[in-house]
Write a structure and sequence with these properties.
This protein is of the alpha+beta class and about 650 residues long. Helices cover about 35% and strands about 20% of the residues. The longest helix has 20 residues.
Length: about 650
């Protein structure tokens, strides 16, 4: 629990202090640097002819007076620019790149020119509805776009030391503070799409200006107060809405139905909820607010024990991109937006920074290795917005409209392009998620190879991590403290999926028991010396995973997991009609390393069975059963890697005999 302001909140680990050198993750980080960010820059400038236009850069040029024209795109189009800039900032913080920095500086110059005299910055309202600022908070994403630009400004300042964008977003935040609040003459409102809350805490941490902390807390506290601010604004607009349907009156959709401290069930738009919870955790940590942290815990528990997919996907309903009800986790109509899993990772990281408990890191790892990395193709130019667990391409885009949102292959871009730059900024900042230092203990949350320079115990420590994770569970850490940091605790996570683990310290066995393993982390507290080596061995067998009996979609079915990776069957390996495959419970499951497949993966092979549908001669329905099964060898691949070999069927959950 948070006990008092700032006493238990682990600080952010700067990216320049963490150098990732990892067989699995270096590929994706280099892909972001070399392919994804340049490709997205072209897309934002409308230079990818085969992709949907963006208009995002041109909107800023028009708002800055550099070009003539009309606003193009969604009301939140500015956020794509901000997230791209944030990803660039993280890349620059990790490794200098003068050419990329010059491009970013040029874009920042345009953004600064687009800012209005009073600090306001939003191209939609500047170009298209200049007299309607702050009149439709429920729908129009002004504070959402502001939050993303603030995050970009903070990240760019940390990376380069340049204040131009930081000064722009500080002026914008000052303007927002002059508009919102409970004082007479101010708007007692809050954003329709949460984001500003967590961004303001970042701005406070970067500048030390408590005005931004107070404003962030205001937005958290004000949400859900009665009477409904959205309803008041709707009446003031004479019932005019920006989107089909009346979002302003659907308060559960934006988690505005009750104050946040009274909420105990994940409901409404999934990304909004996870961004809100991230901001709530930040405010709770910075202010020592126990009641706010308790609400975070309640909602965390509801999400991960009743409303989360095995892949770390969240938000099962396409209607409203939303949570539905407990245990409603359909596989074929699922939404599970990539951005929602990214939001879940943000939330998990904040909870870890407050209270280092392995279940938070377990969920962070699950979402990262499955849904998030699966949201982007291996070429870095195609993306999933929706992440299904079962796909039949014949159903996608056909007469059955309930599958319209499901895509059997990744797309190049989206009219609503929130997911691609979100993936880029998360992977570019991955170094922030591996370690935290919390009250004199250095925690290792993720097993990602590389070298980190961290401050603990009053001095600096170099930590070298090496592994072949996630393909095997052998992890080696070499500790090199300076003189002042010799005495501290090193804590290593024992993942929830691991049933047997062993540890050696300088070649000698180290006990794993109730005294040494606390909250899922094995703690080694000692006087460290240069060259000390810790070797953790996590057994990584293939596991059969079953879901709660109330998850209707998975009744009688099994899924496979090995380490942090969830597996799936794909038509490319197993033929069509995957629903006919039956995996006997006693069938042996064999892990096989395939270096030439999908960049090198471990697959899982087994001898399964398949219904003999060719022997069915009884029409559409019959009192006679299908005449048995036939042997059918199967190969499972990691879920993140599906849809990289063309269009075909896929399923995570398989019938079990």
């Amino acid at each position: 629990m948070v006990k008092s302001a700032n006493t238990a909140y682990a600080a952010r680990v700067p990216l320049h202090q963490v150098h990732i050198q990892d067989e699995f993750w270096s590929y994706y980080i280099n892909l972001v640097r070399d392919v994804v960010v340049p490709y997205q820059w072209d897309a934002l400038n409308d230079r990818v002819n085969s992709a949907e236009p963006s208009g995002a850069v041109r909107n800023f040029k028009i708002a800055a007076g550099l070009e003539q024209g009309d606003f193009y795109g969604m009301v939140f189009q500015d956020s794509d620019i901000a997230k791209w800039l944030e990803a660039v900032a993280y890349l620059l913080e990790s490794k200098p790149d003068p050419a990329l920095e010059d491009i970013a500086d040029g874009l920042i110059d345009i953004i600064a020119m687009a800012q209005q005299e009073d600090g306001y910055l939003n191209t939609y309202f500047t170009i298209k509805e200049p007299g309607q600022r702050w009149t439709n908070l429920a729908e129009c994403h002004e504070l959402y776009c502001a939050g993303h630009m603030i995050e970009a400004g903070v990240a760019y300042y940390r990376a380069t030391g340049k204040r131009k964008l930081l000064d722009v977003v500080s002026r914008f935040a000052d303007h927002i503070d002059s508009v919102f609040g409970t004082d007479p003459g101010k708007l007692a409102g809050y954003d329709g799409h949460q984001e500003i809350e967590l961004a303001l805490i970042k701005l406070y941490q970067a500048t030390g200006n408590e005005r931004y902390l107070r404003l962030g807390r205001y937005f958290v506290d004000q949400r859900g107060q009665k009477p409904s601010f959205y309803a008041i604004q709707l009446e003031e607009r004479g019932g005019k809405t920006h989107w089909p349907g009346n979002v302003a009156l659907d308060l559960e959709y934006s988690q505005s139905h009750v104050p946040v401290r009274e909420q105990d069930k994940a409901i409404g738009h999934a990304v909004r909820l996870l961004y809100m919870l991230t901001g709530m955790a930040d405010v709770a940590a910075e202010t020592g607010d126990d009641s706010l942290f308790a609400a975070c815990r309640r909602l965390w528990d509801n999400i991960v024990t009743r409303q989360m997919y095995i892949t770390g996907g969240v938000g099962s309903m396409p209607q409203g991109e939303a949570f539905s009800f407990d245990y409603d986790l359909p596989n074929d109509t699922v939404y599970a937006e990539t951005c929602a899993s990214i939001g879940l990772i943000f939330f998990a990281q904040r909870m870890l920074r407050i209270s280092p408990e392995a279940p938070f890191a377990d969920v962070m790892e699950r979402a990262l290795y499955n849904t998030v990395v699966g949201g982007m193709s291996r070429d870095g130019k195609h993306f999933f917005y929706v992440n299904p667990l079962e796909v039949d391409p014949k159903a996608c885009g056909g007469a059955n409209r309930k599958y319209d949102h499901i895509k059997p292959v990744r797309q190049e871009w989206f009219g609503c392009a929130c997911c691609p730059p979100n993936v880029a900024r998360l992977l570019a900042s991955l170094g922030e998620y591996i370690y935290t230092v919390h009250e004199g203990t250095l925690y290792t949350h993720l097993y990602i190879g590389g070298e980190a320079q961290l401050e603990v115990g009053g001095g600096k420590v170099k930590l070298k991590q090496a592994s072949n994770y996630p393909w095997d569970g052998k992890i080696r850490l070499e500790v090199e403290p300076d003189g002042a940091a010799g005495s501290f605790a090193l804590a290593l996570r024992i993942p929830g999926w691991c049933k047997r683990a062993s540890l050696k310290l300088n070649g000698s066995a180290y006990p794993l028991n109730d005294q040494t393993v606390v909250n899922g982390y094995v703690r080694i507290e000692r006087e460290w010396a240069a060259g000390d080596v810790v070797e953790l061995d996590l057994e990584m067998p293939v596991q059969r995973i079953y879901s709660h009996p109330l998850v209707r979609a998975n009744a009688g079915k099994v899924a496979l997991q090995r380490g942090p990776l969830v597996y799936c069957l794909e038509e490319a390996d197993n033929g069509a009609n995957l629903h006919e495959i039956v995996l006997p419970r006693e069938a042996e499951l064999t892990a096989v390393r395939e270096e030439q497949l999908l960049g090198g993966v471990v697959t899982v092979r087994s001898e399964a069975e398949k219904l003999r549908e060719e022997d069915w001669t009884n029409g559409l329905y019959s009192p006679e059963a299908v005449p048995g099964t036939k042997p059918h060898p199967v190969k499972f691949i990691p879920y993140y890697a599906w849809a990289n070999r063309g269009e075909g069927e896929m399923t995570v959950w398989v019938r079990e005999r």
